Amino acid sequence: MSDIDDRGGPAQPLLTIRGLTKHFALKGGLFGQGAGTVRAVDGVDFSVMKGETLGVVGESGCGKSTTARLLMQLITPSAGEVVFDGRTVGGRELSLKDFHRQVQMVFQDSYASLNPRLTIEDSIAFGPMVHGVPRREALGRAHDLLARVGLAPARFAGRYPHELSGGQRQRINIARALALQPRLVILDEAVSALDKSVEAQVLNLLMDLKAEFGLTYVFISHDLQVVRYLSDRVMVMYLGQVAELGPAEALFTDPLHPYTKALLSSMPAIDPDHRTEQAPLAGDPPNPINPPPGCRFHPRCALAAPVCSQRAPQPVPARTLHAAACLVHEPGSGHPMAAPQSRAA
Amino acid sequence: MADVSPSPPMVEIADLHVTFTGGRKTVQAVNGVSLAVQRGEVVALIGESGSGKSVTLRTLLRLHNERRTTLRGAVRVAGQDVLAMSPRTLADYRGKVTSMIFQEPLLALDPVYTVGAQIVEAIRRHEPVGQAEAHQRALALFERVRIPSPERRLAAYPHEMSGGMRQRAMIALALACRPQVLLADEPTTALDATVQIQVLLLLRELQRELGLSVIFVTHDIGAAVEVADRIAVMYAGRIVEEGTARQLIRAPRHPYTRALLQSRAHGAMDKGGRLATIGGSPPDLANLPPGCAFAERCPMAQDACRSTQPEAVVLAPGHIARCLRTDATAALASPV
Fold first, then answer.
1. The whole model's pTM is what?
2. Which residues of A touch B196 (CB under 8 A)?
3. I want to staple B312 with a disulfide (CB 3.0 to 4.6 A). Which of A89, B9, B134, B320 is the partner?
């Protein structure tokens, strides 16, 4: 398995996404066509560095789960490319099979993502066997992993998914994801369905496994507190685009984008003496079928100026320390709060 | 209706036991819950899956399958004995005195009728009013829960609305017959963060304006603190601690409440730091231990905890905990 090796060294991003786009055509209308297009993901650029945890947050319909499925190549992008450690995925450089050995995913629904007719050891051993590991060795590895995620192999290996609790099943899903010794694990709302006390156990396990196996995580969640705790960098998505990308602490303490600010102040403070008095945003997240012109957030934005409905802000570049796609932060954009155009540029 | 009594509680649950039979095992879902909710008061029931919070709530409308459920204890709402009601009285009571909003409005609303038709039906079932008047009231309700373009939305089917809009429509439906008690079962859990806070604030505002008594079931402590006057923490079918929101957050005395508050990831936590966890798993409700159900997972448990069922200890006016070690927890610092 020589191609599992680190190729570009620590400075090369493990994963680079360029112009990732997915449009779904809506069926309907007179001849079953032309009813519209869902712009689920629309020109997303970002990279994931080796050994980091990138948190992805946003509300339903913002495209965070579609992005995860595009990364995994579970669905085919309409445009854009995925580069894994310097090699383009799906082409001659890196085949899908080799890519999937290095990237694994854990889903939200722990029950639906396990085959109900396979015992747990068979579920975990299935992936390695597909990739040519002999059954005996794959089962041995499955037992090691079960012990590692805190489930005694002697008690659990022969059980079926319905015999386990939600927290136990999610541990199985994590063990299965690790069975191929991947370098990148995509966690799509992996702890969202768990009770708080169980969630804490699984989060601790994820931290331990990351340190032990040198993993890189893409952690998708709607729970901002958990994302803040786990992530090195955070990407905020809104209607299929990146609204803001930056280091976790900077983004949480000093957010740039008005949407990030609203999202953060929507969190209940757990302070009985200072309850929230006013909702930071009105209305629901809009439908990605016909996104608003200009900046997609402008109809709900407190800082919106006339220019915001006419001009789309510059997208957040993949290689950035901390940036937001917002005309307020774009010099010379015409927004009254923006800085004037700098001459040096 | 003339109210001459010196304001008894609007909702009074006394020593409620709910047992589910009929499966392979007999499940003791609720084991002696007592709770009083005053007129105009909001009480949150919090706990994890299987703690009995939703079962307690559903008992107030008798929504459990009667043939497979054994109910013991007393439940009185607005002076009426809920457990003794005939099917006829129960049908008049549901929606009129007490109504409920559910976690998933798409499942709770009927998919083949417009939302407006469902509200009109609820009003006309309970009150002798005509179609036109009921429609006017439905429109006023939609304006009240701040649904934009309400006239058009009344003619919409549930699947045509967004999640936040559907939850507002269900709140309108629940309030259609001007109930005195509103039961809310995880009403904001399925909503996005920016919509959740809107719905929580709407509930708080409606509760104040209409003087409703509300029981709010949630697993989210943050949501409970935003709306509730008092909070009751449930574990294995019992209320283990109860007090004002302030008492519970600032000075929790039951080890389970403390652990629950500590296990949350919050604020600017130490990045490399580990989250405090509660070891083990909740007890099997078909096979409860004789003593405190939390003892097996409790860092402060002693031998006595495993053999005796702790009685309620009054810690301050309105603040109780069912724990033998409340003296020991008093010395500990607040977890948040």
1. 0.88
2. 266
3. B320
